[in-house]
Amino acid sequence: MTQKTILYVEDSDVDVFFMQRVFEKLDALDCLRVVHNGENAILYLAGVGGFGNRQAFPLPALVLLDLNLPGKQGFDVLEWIRQQPQFQWLPVVIFSASALEADRKRAKELGANDYIVKPNDMTRVSDLLSSVFSRFLNIAAHVEDGPRSVVL
Fold it and tell me: What is the pTM of this model?
């Protein structure tokens, strides 16, 4: 796998632990960046606050976004991303425990590229992520760092 950054927005330490194991198995742990709430996801993407160093916190080529987060919810983050012209290219995959059709519908309306219900089986997660990587990382455009107008 090429070195493209993936931002995982997840508040559950258990889910983060298992995702890190999957990324290790895929030999891609260095690609994974984790934030634990919606506010930090926005700050990371905007490159402000503690996330201003793009060497340490590169722009992601893909966002894996949980819906149920403390503070700003996943839908809030998705809506913010899609309001930023510089992130229209950025693939966002909802990765949530919610199997509700209403959540799927809202995610699609807000511009999610895909919606995956978290499986309980780590092998299944690995297979799903491999599929996501092949579909979305090959189409993700590279955005040059530089001055940007970001609405927080």
Answer: 0.86
